[in-house]
Write a structure and sequence with these properties.
The chain has 136 residues and is mainly α. Helix content is 85%, strand content 0%. It has helices spanning 2-15, 19-35, 39-55, 59-76, 79-92, 94-98, 102-118, 122-135. The protein starts with a helix and ends with a helix.
Amino acid sequence: MQKVKALNILSYEYLFIDTRKADQCVLKLEKIANETNEPEIEAEALRAIADQYTDLEDYEKAGEYFREAKAIFKSLNTEAGEIGYARTLLNMSIIPHIHGDFNEALLMLTEAEPILVKHKQSRFLVNLYNKICDVF
């Protein structure tokens, strides 16, 4: 899991200074997602890839990876799965927001909120409430 988080951070940093290295990080994340037998790690890697495609403004590809991550997190039926699902919705809500579909973005955020409240995810709740303010 730590390797996925580190690659996600690195690829984001490289995005602004060396896109080739950012692409290499994404390829490594894809390899982890394809080779792991742990669904939680696979979903985390897929969400990290989606985040990178969002930063590159390739919203179609980002949406594909977000949907795949969301489905895996939902299937886990664990606390980590619920939190991962809510965080994926939170990150994914940028796509309809950017396309002007504020109702869809708000639906995603309002689905994520009770999950994040339930699990006391204050850091992500602050992000969620900021996004809700952006929608309005």
